[in-house]
Each structure stands twice: as C-alpha cells, then as structure tokens.
Amino acid sequence: MENQANTLFTSFDADEVTFFADLILPIPVPKLFTYRIPRGMADLVKIGARVIVPFGKKNSRVLTAIVARLHNSPPANYQARYVTELLDEYPLVNSYQLELFRWMAEYYMCCVGEVMNVALPSGLKISSQSKVQFNPDFDYPELLTEHEEILLTELKKQPALTYDELSRLAGEGVNIAALIKSLVGKKAVIVFEEIREKYVPKMIRKIRLHPNYEEREQLLVLLQRLEKLPKQQEVVMRYLRHVPVQHNPALNQKGLDKTILNQDDELSQSSLQTLVKNAVFETFEVIQPRFADTSAPQGEIRLTEHQQRAAEQIMARFDQQNIVLFHGITGSGKTEVYIHLIQQALAGGSQVLYLLPEIALTTQIVVRLQRVFGDKMGIYHSKFSDNERVEVWKGVVSGQYQFVVGVRSAVFLPFDNLGLVIVDEEHETSYKQHDPAPRYHARDVALMMAHWQQAKVLLGSATPSLETYYQAKQGRYGLVELHHRFGDATLPNILLIDTKQEKRQKTMKNEFSSALLDALEMNLERKEQSILFQNRRGYSPYMQCEDCDWTAECPNCAVSLTYHQRDAELRCHYCGHKEAVPRLCPTCGSTKVKTIGFGTEKLEDQLQVYFPSSRVLRMDLDTTRAKDAYGQIIREFESGSVDMLVGTQMITKGLDFDNVSLVGIFDADRLIHFPDFRATERSFQMLTQVSGRAGRRAGRQGTVLIQTANPHQSILQKIIQNDYKGLYEEEIQERQDFNYPPFSRLIKLTVRHPDKAISQQAAERLCAELTDALGSTRVLGPEQPLVERIRNQFLFDILIKIEREKVNIKAVKAYIQDRINDILTDKGLRQVSIVIDVDCL
C-alpha cells in the first residue's frame, strides 16, 4: 500500500472522503500540483477528469488540468488553492493514458505536463490566453447579474478581452471562470482562440410538420386551406415527397434537413419561414457526426493466395509473440492484409489503432477503409479542426469508434481495450516528433501502450528500419515476409542515368537528362502518368551574385534563403523569415544575381515549358497547407486528369496509383552522402519506396530512372536488385563496430544561447562533467551542427551513446538530468536552454 501511495498515479477508495487532488498542469514543471477540492465537488471529481484551476502569482492564469490522484493530505510546502470548476462528468483520460504520460515523461526526459499538453487536443484545454468578445446578437439584458453587466459594458467598448483582463475588471473574490461560463450559456459573449476550439458538436437544422398535422385528416384540411397559397402548398408537398407522413406518421419525428426544402428558390424560403411562423412546421436541431459516411460497408474482402498465407502466418506468430514485423515488398497488398486482421479484431470486440506516418497517406487509405468499415471508423490527424479531433476523442471514450486510423498523435487517444495496433511504414522518420517536448517516436510509444493493454502489434514496411529488423532476426519479434506483388504485378525496372556523362555530352536540359525527358514524352503519348521526386521544396535552394559571390542568407539562422518563384520571395525553412527578392546584389550592386540549384517548384516550372500541353501538379509542404489540399491533389491525380506529379518525400509513402508507369528521381547523391550514420539506410528506404509507386497494375512493368553522378555506388546496385537483406548485413556490421543503434541508445543534448561564447561554454562544461562519469567512448562532442544558428540561437550538440546491455539506463538519465540542472541553475548560464532528444534520429 505504501508503494502504491508513492506512485505518480494511484486509485483511491470510493468510500473515502477526499478533499485534495494532485493535478497534471500543461506546463514544463517536473512535479504535480496539489489543489483543494470544494466540498460540493468531492463526490464528483474522478481520476482522469479535467478541471479548471488558477495558477501563477495572484492566480493570474487559468489552466485546464487533469486529475492524477485523489487523497486527503494537504501539501507540506504551500497553501493549496481551490479547484475552480469540474469540466467532466466522466473521465476523458483513462488509467492507461495516465500511465503512458508518466512513462513518456520519464523515458523522454521531459515533464508530464509537456506530455499532457501534446496529448490533449487544444479543444479539451482552456487557458488564460483565451479571449472573450461581446455577442452582437445578444439582447436579453434582464438575464444578467450585476457582475455580468459590468463585464458586458466593457466588452462592448473593446474588440476582445483576455481572461486576465476580465478578472481584473471583475475584482477580487469573483470566480471569473464561472462568470464567463454563465455568460457563454446566456449567449451574451463569444469565447475564441484556444477556448474557441473547446468542443462544440456539429449541429444541423431540421424541420418537421407540427404534430397537429401528422394524422391524415388534419393533413388534408391543411392542404385544402393552402390551395389559395400555392407556394406554401408546394413547400408542404415537397416535404411530403421526402417524408411520407400519410403512410407512417412516426417518420415525421426524424424530420428533414431544412436546406432540402428551401434550396430551389427564394420564394420557397420565404414560404417556409411563413409556415414556421404559422406553426405548420417546427424547426429543431440534431447533432451531426463530422465523420458520417452514408455508404454501406462492403464487408469481407478477398485476399489473394499469397496475402491469405501471410495473414495466417501473422496470426500464428501472434500466438507466440505480441509483436510481428510484416516485411512486404512495395505493391504486395499489405493494406488488404491489414483490413482482414482489423475485421477479425473488431469481431472479437477489441479496439484497433492503425497508425500512418503522413497525412498525405491517410487521404487515399482512408477512402479504402471507409468502403469496408463505414462510419464505425474514426480519423485523427492534425489537419482536422480541433472540434473534429475532440469528436474522435470522445467517440473512443463512448465506444462509438472501435477503430481509429491516424498519424502519430493518435497514440494518445483514450483506448482502454486495444486488441491490435498496426504501425504502417514503421521505418518512417515522420513518426518521430522533434518539437516540442516530448520528442517521442510514435512506433515506440505504441509498443508500450499495446504492452500495457496486452494488445498485438503489427509493424509493416517494405523497407524496415534496421533496429526493427534486427529485433525480428534476434527472435524478439515475429517475422512474416511477402515477396509477391498484388495481382501478379512486377517490380519496376530501375535504370541509372549518369548525369556526368550527359553533361559532358551536353544532352542535359537544366535538371533533366535526355533519357528522362524522352521517357516522359513516351509516357504522355501512352496516356500514362509519371511521378517525379526531388526531396527539396521551393524553386532554388539559394540565390548568388556571379560577380562577388554574395548569397542571400537568413538574418536569424546560419542558412541560405530558399527562393520561391510563385510568391516572388526568399524564405527560411527553419524560422519562417521572408523577404523580397533583390533586383540588384546588396553587396556590389550587380544585376547578375541568379538562382542556384533546384527544388520541386523549379521542376514543376520546367515541366510546363518542356511539355506545355501536359497537366502538372506539385505536392510539398507549400502546396498542402490547407486542410483538404492533400486529398484534392490525390483525387485529381487519381482521376487521370493530371499527367505528372512532382513532390518531396510525402509522395514516397504508400500512395497507390494504377496508371503510374514512370518514376523519375533527382539528386539521389545528396541523399546518399548526407552526413549521418543512417544516410545509407534512409536512402535505400526512400528511393525504394518512391520506386514502388511505378507499375502497380498487373501486366505492365513500370520504369524508374535515377539521375546520379556516380552510377557505380553500392547502395544504388542494392536498390536496383531490391536487396534489403544485403543492405542489412552490411549496415548492421558497421553499427556494431561503432556502437550505434540497435546496439546502443542515443541521447542528443542541444545547448542553445544567443551568445555563441556562452553556448559553447555551457556545452563544454556539460560535456566534461558527463565524460568524467560516463567515459569518452560514450560522450561525443560538443560540436556545432550543420546549421549552427537557428532563430538567433547558437547551437552545440552533445551525443551520448549508452549500451543496451548491462547499463542502468534510468540511473544514467537521472545523472544527465542532474548535470543539466547544474548548468541551468548557474547564475552565469541561466539563459541557456538545453534540448533533450532521447532516441534521436
């Protein structure tokens, strides 16, 4: 019992009278805060529920917190403040999630409040940054209290006021959160920004006949009475055609969407309003699920012989191991196998989570999944509005969604009965969050979540990460392989184009080899589609003066500005700085300022020049900022109205287009020679994945052209031969020789400060202290990264390599944290910040 009391998250005796709660606040502090629960709430507050609390000096901030523990022991070191308001009748965060928050904070060396802040959609959080404005439609002043009248008087004078400002106006002793909640309930004010996205159900207005006219006799009397009012009679007849009340009066209770009756003309709208006013019709509102899908599920899918065998092997492995790696080549039909397994899990009454690495990938797969599962499936990713994400969150709690497909943030959803977790394209770096903390990897978090709920995990990839494949080869994971493409389609024919030779022969046209241009032209003649991959967005990576070598650089970061032609501006892809394109060189005044290199925007522009009658689309971060931009691009390309798709790595991941027969790859050498120990692995993964987009239809082999200055590189030969195992054998030996993952754990510490000397001083001191305790073979650095300054902060990296065997990793992390705290509490170094990245990529 004593151990239970000391754990971060504990349950409590339901019969015990409790007056205190330990709360998780969405702020980066290491400990929980204890608040007093008002006696009126004592029986209502539950672990996992959200509450609103004051925080800061003089209660200057309002925060949403999660109840982590209930007890009757007041804090020893401070006077507990009161919980202001209870937001949930039933908990929206379950015990598995609370344990996950705790584990992530410990493992990724951050604060549990930071985990909470990332885990909960902002629609479930209220903060003092929320703003309030007067509702111009409000006209019932008799409903207001004295305090409410004071606030509304001020709100009418201002565009909007914050919680803090309203709290000062209301004066001491006034519960500002309760006051604003009351005003919102009376529709006197509108709350927006963070709180604006607090979940509001989507409502649709419907209309139905007044109950007086449901019976046949009264309905006939009504129609006779309206004979002299033909427009109104037509509206009633239109309603009866959609809702045959005369045959079944009970249908009238469901009503009809109001837009159906008044969509034809303005006269019908006016007539409908009159009929409502005269109590012939009555209006009402119903909640409309945002993910409603009216199409009927298709039921079971049919697997090919190879897919069926793979599914059976996966189930057999699950009988022995909880984690299975499904290594299936590109185009082998892994998705169909996933669907089959999902159906089995759902039939057994379990929940299923299907993780995808990229929003672009969800667009196409979701359509396929909805054909099978209909509106029983939830969708969760960052392009959705917060209301939509909260609806899925609540749908999981209520049981509406037993199956959710989503990107990395979906691991935080409140599952409590997981049976199966699928991590598709498990090798993808998109699963790793880089900012803010926690800097987690969704695949690894999913493995822990599944472990606690005793769920099975299927890791799928055509090019698994070396760490995952190593675990499978060691027998820790099950391994199932599928080496046949779906429908007997064949792997594409991969050819290497020697750009050095083409440049010597002067057959290159800008960035295009003659071989690639010829292949594109032939593809157009055959009315087949092409994909062109360049992993750099923008028009050109930088601009330079031919006379003095001036280069446009970001004032905040040690990086050149990328030229974006469409918007006629230079942009920094690190801090977002933008500036106009100079007409003359700022240094020497020369007019010879030119662009150097190329990105996706430049390729798109050149394709329009070489093939003016073709239709070209571009998919990169710049063209997909809008909510449905991914879907729109994919639908257009899928329809066949687009001839060529140019894009960055987001086009490499699992997209399935039957009519794509050609893939062109630019700048392969830059990927291969990137200074990172994972460069070879990632080059193989990326180039193999994008190559797999070609020739996915049976009976037609696709073609892949890779432009390179060195066709004899070993990695390119392995890509041509689809030799993943050969790549693995070479790379795993190097990893072992130099003690890199999977043989070690990596922790990267990045020291940042606006003054380079201070940043370097802090990094060198931290590195020396860590080296003294851990040894020079485990601590590397400090060194400046490739981009040494970002957002006016100078960076120094320290890399720590810890063996996986025979080392107490918790003790090592605790020691690292203590040394970091020493730096951060030093008076001369207090402005230094240190970013901790566990399992860095």
Automatic annotation (TrEMBL):
<dbReference type="InterPro" id="IPR001650">
    <property type="entry name" value="Helicase_C-like"/>
</dbReference>
<feature type="binding site">
    <location>
        <position position="588"/>
    </location>
    <ligand>
        <name>Zn(2+) 1</name>
    </ligand>
</feature>
<dbReference type="GO" id="GO:0008270">
    <property type="term" value="F:zinc ion binding"/>
</dbReference>
<dbReference type="InterPro" id="IPR011545">
    <property type="entry name" value="DEAD/DEAH_box_helicase_dom"/>
</dbReference>
<keyword id="KW-0235">DNA replication</keyword>
<feature type="binding site">
    <location>
        <position position="557"/>
    </location>
    <ligand>
        <name>Zn(2+) 2</name>
    </ligand>
</feature>
<feature type="binding site">
    <location>
        <position position="554"/>
    </location>
    <ligand>
        <name>Zn(2+) 2</name>
    </ligand>
</feature>
<keyword id="KW-0067">ATP-binding</keyword>
<keyword id="KW-0347">Helicase</keyword>
<feature type="binding site">
    <location>
        <position position="585"/>
    </location>
    <ligand>
        <name>Zn(2+) 1</name>
    </ligand>
</feature>
<dbReference type="GO" id="GO:0006269">
    <property type="term" value="P:DNA replication, synthesis of primer"/>
</dbReference>
<protein>
    <recommendedName>
        <fullName>Replication restart protein PriA</fullName>
        <ecNumber>5.6.2.4</ecNumber>
    </recommendedName>
</protein>
<dbReference type="Pfam" id="PF00271">
    <property type="entry name" value="Helicase_C"/>
</dbReference>
<dbReference type="GO" id="GO:0043138">
    <property type="term" value="F:3'-5' DNA helicase activity"/>
</dbReference>
<comment type="similarity">
    <text>Belongs to the helicase family. PriA subfamily.</text>
</comment>
<dbReference type="GO" id="GO:1990077">
    <property type="term" value="C:primosome complex"/>
</dbReference>
<keyword id="KW-0238">DNA-binding</keyword>
<dbReference type="Pfam" id="PF00270">
    <property type="entry name" value="DEAD"/>
</dbReference>
<dbReference type="Pfam" id="PF18074">
    <property type="entry name" value="PriA_C"/>
</dbReference>
<comment type="function">
    <text>Initiates the restart of stalled replication forks, which reloads the replicative helicase on sites other than the origin of replication. Recognizes and binds to abandoned replication forks and remodels them to uncover a helicase loading site. Promotes assembly of the primosome at these replication forks.</text>
</comment>
<feature type="domain" description="Helicase C-terminal">
    <location>
        <begin position="580"/>
        <end position="739"/>
    </location>
</feature>
<comment type="subunit">
    <text>Component of the replication restart primosome.</text>
</comment>
<dbReference type="Pfam" id="PF18319">
    <property type="entry name" value="Zn_ribbon_PriA"/>
</dbReference>
<feature type="binding site">
    <location>
        <position position="572"/>
    </location>
    <ligand>
        <name>Zn(2+) 2</name>
    </ligand>
</feature>
<keyword id="KW-0862">Zinc</keyword>
<dbReference type="InterPro" id="IPR027417">
    <property type="entry name" value="P-loop_NTPase"/>
</dbReference>
<dbReference type="GO" id="GO:0006270">
    <property type="term" value="P:DNA replication initiation"/>
</dbReference>
<keyword id="KW-0479">Metal-binding</keyword>
<keyword id="KW-0547">Nucleotide-binding</keyword>
<keyword id="KW-0378">Hydrolase</keyword>
<dbReference type="InterPro" id="IPR041236">
    <property type="entry name" value="PriA_C"/>
</dbReference>
<dbReference type="InterPro" id="IPR014001">
    <property type="entry name" value="Helicase_ATP-bd"/>
</dbReference>
<dbReference type="InterPro" id="IPR040498">
    <property type="entry name" value="PriA_CRR"/>
</dbReference>
<dbReference type="InterPro" id="IPR005259">
    <property type="entry name" value="PriA"/>
</dbReference>
<dbReference type="Pfam" id="PF17764">
    <property type="entry name" value="PriA_3primeBD"/>
</dbReference>
<feature type="binding site">
    <location>
        <position position="575"/>
    </location>
    <ligand>
        <name>Zn(2+) 2</name>
    </ligand>
</feature>
<feature type="domain" description="Helicase ATP-binding">
    <location>
        <begin position="315"/>
        <end position="482"/>
    </location>
</feature>
<dbReference type="GO" id="GO:0003677">
    <property type="term" value="F:DNA binding"/>
</dbReference>
<keyword id="KW-0639">Primosome</keyword>
<feature type="binding site">
    <location>
        <position position="548"/>
    </location>
    <ligand>
        <name>Zn(2+) 1</name>
    </ligand>
</feature>
<dbReference type="InterPro" id="IPR041222">
    <property type="entry name" value="PriA_3primeBD"/>
</dbReference>
<keyword id="KW-0413">Isomerase</keyword>
